[in-house]
Design a protein that fits this description.
Family: Belongs to the protein kinase superfamily. RIO-type Ser/Thr kinase family.
Protein name: Serine/threonine-protein kinase RIO3
GO molecular function: ATP binding; metal ion binding; protein serine/threonine kinase activity
Keywords: Antiviral defense, ATP-binding, Cytoplasm, Immunity, Innate immunity, Kinase, Magnesium, Metal-binding, Nucleotide-binding, Phosphoprotein, Ribosome biogenesis, Serine/threonine-protein kinase, Transferase
Number of domains: 2
Order of helices and strands: HEEEEEHHH
Strand content: 25-35%
Helix content: 25-40%
Catalytic activity: L-threonyl-[protein] + ATP = O-phospho-L-threonyl-[protein] + ADP + H(+); L-seryl-[protein] + ATP = O-phospho-L-seryl-[protein] + ADP + H(+)
Length: 103
């Protein structure tokens, strides 16, 4: 949990309070780029969240992410959507890319 800053921890608690997640059970893996947590799903706006989930939290800052744009714009799945985006939108694209890598 050391890698989770207060703002990220607050977002995780908000996911539990909103019912998206029933609980966050703890860290199951840490690496140089991210921390992975096990969670139990809840429901959100009539959508059922899977019973077991993982949360992948990246250990990075906005400034560090600016250097990672090359990994997104060189990926054929995202190159048409990538242009001079602001850093937060690049982070969103990066997370989407990571999700696609898992499926």
């Amino acid at each position: 949990e050391q890698a989770v800053d207060p703002r990220t921890r607050l977002l995780m608690y908000k996911m539990v309070n909103a019912g998206i997640l029933e609980s966050i059970n703890g860290c199951i893996s840490t690496g140089k780029e991210s921390v992975v947590f096990h969670a139990n799903g809840g429901s959100f706006e009539e959508k059922i969240v899977p019973e077991e989930c993982v949360l992948k939290v990246f250990k990075t800052t906005l400034n560090e992410f600016k250097n990672r744009d090359k990994y997104i714009k060189d990926d054929y799945r995202f190159k048409d959507r990538f242009s001079k985006l602001n850093p937060r939108k690049i982070i969103r694209l990066w997370a989407e890319k990571e999700m696609h890598n898992l499926t």
